[in-house]
Amino acid sequence: MKYLFLIFLMNLLHQYAGKSLRRDGSSLKSFEDIKNEIAGYTNIAKAIIDLAVHGKAQNRSYERLAVFTDTIGPRLSGSKNLEAAIKYMFSALQEDRLENVHLEPVKVPHWERGEEFAVMLEPRNHSIAILGLGNSIATPPEGITAEVIVVASFDELHKRAQEAKGKIVVYNEPFINYGETVQYRLQGAVEAAKVGAVASLIRSIASFSIHSPHTGEQSYQPDVPQIPTACISVEDAEMMSRMSLRGTKIVVHLRMGAKTYPDSLSFNTVAEIVGSKYPEQVVLVSGHLDSWDVGQGAMDDGGGAFISWEALSLIKDLGLRPKRTLRLVLWTGEEQGGVGAKQYYQLHKENISNFDIVMESDEGTFKPSGLGFAGSAEARDIVREIMTLLQPINVTAVYNTADGTDIAFWMRDGVPGASLQDDINKYFWFHHSQGDTMTVQDPNQMNLCAAVWAVVSYVIADMEDMLPR
Ligand SMILES: *[C@@H]1O[C@H](CO)[C@@H](O)[C@H](O)[C@H]1NC(C)=O
Ligand SMILES: *[C@@H]1O[C@H](CO)[C@@H](O)[C@H](O)[C@H]1NC(C)=O
Ligand SMILES: *[C@@H]1O[C@H](CO)[C@@H](O)[C@H](O)[C@H]1NC(C)=O
Ligand SMILES: *[C@@H]1O[C@H](CO)[C@@H](O)[C@H](O)[C@H]1NC(C)=O
Ligand SMILES: [Zn+2]
After folding, report:
1. Is the CB of residue 354 below 6 angstroms from any atom belonging to ligand 1?
2. Distance 125 CA to ligand 2 centre (A)
3. What is the percent of the chain with per-residue pLDDT over 90, rounded to a whole number?
């Protein structure tokens, strides 16, 4: 409350800044005018930061996320848990007195892993930890028992294609970076099936491991036989690689009970602070509510979803109402192909000219370092200026690209996009594994992330002009 007077004052000052600009484009605002306009938000930014980091909202996004993930658990597309999560958020956003809280229906994939189990039979009995990959078919009920061929790359698989027939392909690809290495998870089964393999096991896409498998999406191709596929721990992949380099014969028994059901009804969850002057124009902040079916989905993407909610809560608590509508979208079906986001885009793209910026946080909510931004050079200069408002917490960097499956369609069509950049050093330790729990989240770090998200989204939503494209 003590901020209100300050904010009132700042708003007053703000009215008198940047008057030279007309929205009809008849006279171009100089960058100096824009800089002044942004500088006018210094005290509002401080108020947001104070509230999030030191004030009454300290730890709120963390505490909310803890209750949510401990209550609901992981939230796979098509699962009862995801349904419960959406109901939970629908009520929570209403209780938070946000506006236009509603659900937008989406059909999402419904795959269940069922029981799964793998054991090495030769050269010695050894239980192998596995997680079936999304969309995998089952093995026959009696399982598959076959000799293993270990390869380090698709190249090696292609060179040794003759040896792969009838075998289980084990990929022991080194972790280079997520984007590159994840190709083994996405296409490993297809490539193995092309050379006649009966199943494939993929070394988890993880930068560090304590014997945990990391699941994720994979897809089959038309005209290529579908074979069961799972991930294994880095440790087991490396051991089988060592064994095979010594010329040791390896035999594995694999049993998977996965099932794919008809698509199921789900929802994107939406809430707003309606704009005071240009309510039809939208600044979108987002994270995805679905997760894999292991751990708690606290990091991927509970953190991103909850700092996005927090951004609206902070702005509302300060009694602020930006000129444009600030819209929170909690996507469904991200993990299995960005299904919710795709439908949202198709439904709302008719209004694309009113989308000012699309923002998603889906790469962790660890210590933030800045903002990933995609857009024109002109828009980037403005965003750089906005980021100077975050000097009090030293999070001012602007990076060259923005990432986010759920905002990709809009960015492709030229809408400016932003993603939160944070310290992802440990992100792939936990990603898509049993290790993705509240234990890896940190309240102080989430406070900082929420402050960045709220300042950036508020200022962009409140500036007199939309970002140039
Ligand atoms: C927020 O979390 C930090 C770190 O756990 C703790 O020291 C602090 O007391 C918490 N603040 C509140 C208001 O709970
Ligand atoms: C290995 O496991 C199989 C089946 O689980 C069992 O029949 C066999 O006795 C075990 N071999 C050794 C050496 O323990
Ligand atoms: C597009 O924007 C108009 C004006 O704000 C609104 O009435 C309409 O519902 C929007 N359409 C969609 C599909 O969101
Ligand atoms: C601010 O952040 C930069 C870049 O992340 C870092 O190098 C610098 O040490 C930080 N400064 C302070 C005072 O924390
Ligand atoms: Zn994610």
Report:
1. no
2. 6
3. 94
pLDDT value at residue 27 = 53
Mean pLDDT of 34-53: 98
Task: Answer whether 0.85 is exceeded by the pTM.
Answer: yes
Q: What is the CATH number of domain 114-257?
A: 3.50.30.30
Integer Cα distance of 296 and 368 in angstroms: 22
In the chain, which residues fall in CATH 3.40.630.10?
2-110+263-462
Task: Give the helix/strand (H/E) hosting 332.
Answer: none
Task: Write out the residue limits of the CATH 3.50.30.30 domain(s) in the chain.
Answer: 114-257
In the chain, the percentage of residues whose pLDDT exceeds 70 is 94
The minimum-distance atom of ligand 4 relative to the CA of 369 is 5
Position in ligand 3 atom list of the atom nearest CA 348: 13
Sign of the C-alpha dihedral, residues 65, 66, 67, 73? positive
pLDDT tens-digit readout, 119-166: 999 999 999 999 999 999 999 999 999 999 999 999 999 999 999 999
Q: Give the C-alpha separation, 46 to 205, whole Å.
A: 40
Candidates 395, 286, 369; CA nearest to 330 is 286
Q: Check: CB of residue 252 under 8 Å from CB of residue 139.
A: no
- Model confidence at 17, pLDDT cuts 50, 70, 90, reads very low
Active site residue 191: no
Query: What are the tokens at 44?
Result: 């509002």
Fold adopted by 2-110+263-462 = Aminopeptidase (3.40.630)
